[in-house]
Amino acid sequence: MTADARTLGWLTRALQHEFAAVQQYLAQATLARMSGYPDWAERLQAEAMEELAHAQRLMQRLIELGVAPCAGALPPARLGRGVADFPALNRQLEQAAVVLYQDAADHARRVRDPATEVLMRELAQEEAQHFGAWQQDATPTH
Ligand SMILES: [Fe+2]
Ligand SMILES: [Fe+2]
Fold first, then answer.
1. Which fold has domain 5-69+82-136?
2. How far is CA 79 from CA 13, 84, 116, 141, in A?
3. What does the pLDDT profile of the chain (142 residues) look like in tens digits?
4. Domain residue spans of the chain
5. What distance in angstroms lies between residue 97's CA and the mean position of ligand 2's atoms?
6. Closest ligand, as measured to the CA of 51
């Protein structure tokens, strides 16, 4: 199929978001381990792997549309002043992802691209779950 240029733009923006999320969660996992929070490190590492899987699903859609994935430059990982700041930072990250995926899904619907729309709605739902999980973990413990 011929790919809609703005759909490719949304997919690429989403791919950049996912790699930025991988970078942030891996950096936080590293800092958590260095700071003596091994449980947090493990959980953050697992989050990074989930976001990596999201990146791969977006890559598959880009490749189906005939485009080589290119995430571009990533924003810096946000570490705040340490582990106590991670939940708030990660709620911001996940909230931004939900908005991005909802807008991307709406665009896909407008251009009648159901495969992309389904992918974007699924990812919006998963990011909403990530957001919810960070609301429940406000206080890190050693
Ligand atoms: Fe994600
Ligand atoms: Fe996420």
1. Ferritin (1.20.1260)
2. 22, 10, 32, 17
3. 578 999 999 999 999 999 999 999 999 999 999 999 999 999 999 999 999 999 999 999 999 999 999 999 999 999 999 999 999 999 999 999 999 999 999 999 999 999 999 999 999 999 999 999 999 766 666 5
4. 5-69+82-136
5. 7
6. 1
